[in-house]
Every structure is written in C-alpha cells, then in structure tokens.
Amino acid sequence: xxxxxxxxxxxxxxxxxxxxxxxxxxxxxxxxxxxxxxxxxxxxxxxxxxxxxxxxxxxxxxxxxxxxxxxxxxxxxxxxxxxxxxxxxxxxxxxxxxxxxxxxxxxxxxxxxxxxxxxxxxxxxxxxxxxxxxxxxxxxxxxxxxxxxxxxxxxxxxxxxxxxxxxxxxxxxxxxxxxxxxxxxxxxxxxxxxxxxxxxxxxxxxxxxxxxxxxxxxxxxxxxxxxxxxxxxxxxxxxxxxxxxxxxxxxxxxxxxxxxxxxxxxxxxxxxxxxxxxxxxxx
Length: 283
Known about the structure:
By secondary structure, the chain is of the alpha/beta class. Helix content is 41%, strand content 18%.
C-alpha cells in the first residue's frame, strides 16, 4: 500500500518541505528503489516480492513523479538537491545508509548518493550521466516524444491500445525489450504517470549538463545494462566502468532500458548479489 511522508530538505532558498509517496515491505537490511524519469515506483513491482524475501524494500516516487508532490516552487530538480533529499527521506523513514538500486535517472541518483556516503551498496541499471552530447540529445528527444504521445492520447484510445501486444509495443517499446509482457493496466498506469509527471521538464532541463565523472570507492557497485536498451545505448556502460573502475559491469541479455519487467529474476539476482557482497568481509 502506498503511503506518504513529509520531511525538510535543504535548498539554496532555505529549508523547504518535500512530500514523497512510497511503498514499504519485507524485512532485513533496507533497500531503496529509485525509478527513472517519467516513471513511477510501480516500475519495480515485477521484482519487489523477490527482493522483499531478503530486504526491507522501500520503493519511492521521486519528487514530481508518480504520486509524489512536486518540489516547492523555485527548487531545482538537480543532483545537488535530489540526492540529499533522498538522504533526508531515509532519515524520515528511520533508515540509515540503505542499499540502493536505481534505473536510468534513479541509477544516476543512486551513484550520487554513494558519492555522498549515503548508501551501503549501489546497483545502477542503465544509469544516466555517461552519455556523449549526441547520445544525450537522442535520449532526451526520445523521452520528449514519449511524453508528447502520452499527453496527446485520450484515455479511451490509450486503454484500447493497451489491450493488444502491438499497442503495448507502440506505447512502451522504447523502454522495454518485451513490452507485450506488460499488463494492459500497467501500460495505462505508466503512460498516465508519464503524462502527469510535474517534474519532467525541470528534470530534463537540470540533466542537460550532467555527466557523472567521480569514482565511488569503498563500497560494492554494480552497473548493469540491458543488451537491448534503445534509450541509453549499452556502450555507455563501458564509460561507466572507466569512471567507476571498481564496479562490476554486467550485461542483461534480452533486456531493454527498464529491465525489471523484461527479466525480473535476473534483475533481482543482480541486486541481491550486490547487496550480499556488502556483507562479505574483505581481507
């Protein structure tokens, strides 16, 4: 069941209040799940139950996405604001240094949280921030096209399209390698989430100059890339590995940009293996 929590974040304008929606289940070491731009916490549903067998899983809607409120007026949707805000969210939920898994924007945020010593381990699934300028422009153009399509479709047409495999492919084939596996209702819900994302444009604007260039030594990091990622091309994983040389770089066969639905068992195993490695004493 989705709940909400409000907490104080530090901003250049002074302390402000953020309100975030989240789901929490399971028991064990905490594991924070972060979705990508325009998506919502339900993106993690295919793997949540598997992960909750070993962890207290906390899936969140990022500010301005899903059921979470937008950031207060004038507050930027940049890494310097959102990553510390996620740390403040964890404090509000009584969680200290969780394991974090993130997809796309969420993967970038997970790495930024690691850079700020806020996490125990990181699993970054096709993280943003390792692109060339041309690759960034391509990805942002694809995202804007998806957003425009989501806004243009009347709800009856969206529901009708979602009932067929071809329709689900047309709606979500950019981010899934196997869009037919998505249920019609899930496709409707995520398209509506993309349509209603109040933080979408400001997040894109903040991301235009973002490059992740720092190593995050001292904790387990896995960078995993879908072999059929059509949004952030998998060669970006090589750059990520060069930036974070201690990271484990994994290819996800048969998976697209949002791999949790394409192969839930594989994605869950990658996340669990990363978290387990944080508990292994080093010589």
